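# nightly structure sweep
# worker-07 picked up a monomer target from the shared queue
# config: single-sequence mode, recycle default, output format = structure tokens
# input follows
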Amino acid sequence: MNKYKILLLGLLFDALGYVSFFIPGIGEFSDIVWAPVSGWLMTKLYKGKPGKIAGVVSFVEEAVPGLDVIPTFTLMWLYTYVFKKEPQETK
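# output follows
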């Protein structure tokens, strides 16, 4: 999948995580449903060990009250495509 499609999906998923702030009364209930879904989606967007770790982080971030403000999907995209050092290929 194109890295910019992954970014757009990540922004959408982060926005969905913020919905609980805007709908009074169902906020924490929606987090109970969204936490495992966000963890699963993270593992599908990012493969391997980094994806699994990010899935756990995303689950915990959505499950713990007050941590919803962290844009986990966007941060993972930045880690993967901007900050992560690729191993240098030797000849």
